[in-house]
Amino acid sequence: MHTSNEQPYLYAKPAVQAVIRTEPADFQVVEELNFEPSGSGEHLLLQIEKTGQNTQFIARELARLTGLRVRDISYAGLKDRHAVTTQWFCFKWPIKQELAWQNWQLEGSRILQVVRHYRKLRLGALKRNHFSLRLRQVSDSAGLLARLPLLAEGVPNYYGEQRFGINGGNLALAERLFGGESIPDRQLRGLALSASRSFLFNQVIAGRIRRGHFARLLPGDVVQLAGSGSIFVVDQVTPELEQRLSAQDIHLTAPLVGLGKAMVTAEAALLEQQLLAPWQAWQQALELLRVQAGRRSMRVIPEQLQASVEQDAVVLQFALPAGCFATSVLRELVEYRDAARDIAQMES
């Protein structure tokens, strides 16, 4: 199977080399919700900064401390273990009942604030994530900074290798599931399904880059309005639509394979069929498992992008829409070695 390292680059492979995640503080992420907490209501929102812990661990700890079930603890998104991440958790708690959260001891974590809200925090209720990345052992800081303006043109919105598990373990799990093996653990099953769809999505982006169609409209393409989930089909390619694509007002999309009517038509549909032909069995399995089809933007544009040089390190800051991967931005800028991932692979 193709790893992320084998996926084509949009701007050619970077010449600059660096190391990321030498320590957790080198990779910092702060969630921004897509709503303002109401300040009242029967749900509690907890903003927690965690270091060296994954999201599920914190959810389990909150369940233990409150006496609730783990499934009663919700969050807007999963955050990496090998990082310093600030994210929101939520659970229902009676308005008149005290909660001595100031006395809690959460390993590798601290509660920054607690606020009430009128409804449960849902998965995906994020506007964007803010990243601060320290790149160490940078081979050519000036060369890295010179390449930075390319990112503002947009980069391939690949799913990062984290989605596929250590050594592609989640994809191997998907193959077993599609081969008829029962996976009763809902979380593992979900990881397998998510990884397989992400893999197929990446294949379409990779294929379009190789054929020179990454930023070129085809008849029948499905495009997404910038800053919105709204999508529409391009029946006819016009200069106006081409200009809107160039101006980043609209973005081309690729499929999240599953059950449902494929919106894509004409020449764009034929291209997607060709690119996914080797994976027909996976497509059929996803439909049989009643995973719902969707679309996702092929291009992501980092916001608030800035960089500063500190000796042989470069600190990179930017924000991305929810669900987009910082490492997919990073790979177009620098050839990096992920120190934390190296350790995880040795331990697996």
UniProtKB/TrEMBL annotation:
SUPFAM superfamilies found in the cross-reference section: Pseudouridine synthase
Pfam families hit by this protein: TruD (PF01142)
Record InterPro entries: PsdUridine_synth_cat_dom_sf, PsdUridine_synth_TruD, PsdUridine_synth_TruD_CS, PsdUridine_synth_TruD_insert, TruD_catalytic, TruD_insert_sf, TruD_pseudoU_synthase
One GO molecular-function entry: RNA binding
Domain of life: Bacteria
Active site: 80 (nucleophile)
EC number, as in UniProt: 5.4.99.27
Domain spans labelled TRUD: 154-301
Catalysed reactions listed for this entry: uridine(13) in tRNA = pseudouridine(13) in tRNA
Xref: HAMAP family: TruD
Family of this protein: Belongs to the pseudouridine synthase TruD family.
Protein name: tRNA pseudouridine synthase D
Source species of the chain: Alishewanella aestuarii B11
Organism taxonomic ancestry: Bacteria, Pseudomonadati, Pseudomonadota, Gammaproteobacteria, Alteromonadales
